[in-house]
């Protein structure tokens, strides 16, 4: 059985490697939308799982914020793709990629701690990804998406850090 710590370490390594690759060259709008959508779906699914498993009201409240904001962001990405007539990945492909990004967090006493720690790491990675894209893209719709989404993600990060500190 994979421990929470080793699974989170693997997720963190994958996030860092993915972040490093996106820093080398600007992503195409299609690649950015596919990657951001998968990250959003992973965050939504992880937060749904946490909402069901935790007994903490603070974490339940946090998961609702994350689910709502990330759903809105993914809907916005889909609108951008349609507007720009981009050939983005199917929902099934995005879900498959998202599943690979979802950390395995075991039940038990350490669940809340593992969830909040993973939220801090993945949200930091997502913020870095969006900032990198904003500095390299020449697509106004994507710049606008980043400008709209970053403050929400920064708020998620503040909340996740506070939750982690209270564990």
What does this structure look like?
- Helices cover 81% and strands 0% of the residues.
- The chain has 6 helices and no strands.
- Helix 1 (4-24) runs parallel beside helix 5 (111-136).
- It has helices at residues 4-24, 29-53, 57-83, 91-101, 111-136, 140-165.
- The protein starts with a helix and ends with a helix.
- It is mainly α and 167 residues long.
- The protein has one domain: Ferritin (Up-down Bundle), CATH 1.20.1260.
Which key terms come to mind for this protein?
167 residues, mainly alpha, Ferritin, 6 helices, disordered N terminus
Total domain units: 1
Helix content: over 70%
Quote the CATH topology: Ferritin
Which structural class matches the secondary elements?
mainly alpha
**Number of β-strand runs:** 0
Give the C-alpha Rg.
16 Å
Q: Average the pLDDT over all residues and give the rounded result.
A: 81
> What string, H for helix and E for strand, traces the elements in order?
HHHHHH
Beta-strand content? under 5%
Form type? globular
CATH class identity: Mainly Alpha
Number of helices: 6
Largest sheet: none
Instruction: Report the end-to-end length measured between terminal Cα atoms.
Output: 24 Å
CATH superfamily: Ferritin, core subunit, four-helix bundle
In CATH, the architecture is: Up-down Bundle
- Runs in which pLDDT lies below 50 for 5 or more consecutive residues are 1-24
């Amino acid at each position: 059985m994979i421990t929470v710590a080793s699974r989170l370490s693997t997720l963190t390594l994958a996030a860092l490697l993915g972040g490093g690759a996106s820093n080398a060259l600007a992503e195409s709008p299609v690649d950015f939308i596919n990657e951001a959508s998968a990250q959003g779906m992973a965050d939504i699914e992880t937060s749904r799982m946490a909402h069901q498993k935790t007994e903490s009201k603070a974490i339940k409240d946090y998961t609702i914020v994350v689910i709502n904001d990330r759903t809105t962001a993914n809907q916005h990405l889909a609108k951008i793709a349609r507007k720009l007539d981009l050939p983005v990945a199917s929902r099934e492909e995005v879900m498959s990629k998202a599943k690979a990004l979802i950390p395995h967090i075991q039940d038990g006493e350490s669940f809340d701690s593992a969830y909040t720690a993973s939220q801090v790491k993945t949200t930091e990675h997502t913020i870095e990804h969006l900032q990198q894209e904003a500095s390299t893209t020449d697509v106004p719709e994507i710049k606008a998406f980043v400008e709209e989404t970053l403050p929400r993600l920064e708020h998620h990060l503040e909340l996740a850090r506070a939750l982690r500190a209270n564990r």
